[in-house]
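Collaborator request, handled under Task 6.
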Amino acid sequence: MLGEKAGVKITHVPFAGGGPALEAVLGGHVDFLMATMPRIKDHIVSGGRLRTLICCGKKRSPDRPDLKTLIELGYDVDLDLRHTVCVSAKTPKEIVSKLRASMKEAVDTPKYAKMIKETGYRAEWFDHEQFQEWPDASIKTYRPVMQRLGLIK
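Structure tokens returned to the collaborator:
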């Protein structure tokens, strides 16, 4: 999406996770990396080995409020990531309810919010229905791009 919007050719180089991808950019084997702030945080501090250019989500990073978002720079691209907790679809409803309640309680505590902020993530709680809007919107956004790239039918 970014390549299309910016009018440049970007070649995706697959890696077996964020660690190997980070090693590749630090080693000069690839030109750039799109990663979460916690993954690169230690490498961007003053005099670090990486230089951050943009923020890929809708909101600026709390760790780097000086970084403009792609949207602010005129590219209608939101590559915000969400980390989720999942269980098997066969998990009994009473256990799912208890897990949801416990997770919500944890997310609402100041200690959790402080810990999450220190890692570079944002703590946000969405109930099941609210959260489902995100993957539905993501599929609608990314499906045409992936089809044009021949990644899916």
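The cover message to the collaborator said: "Helices lie at 2-6, 18-26, 37-44, 93-107, 110-119, 128-148. The first helix runs from residue 2 to 6. Please let us know whether this matches your experimental observations."
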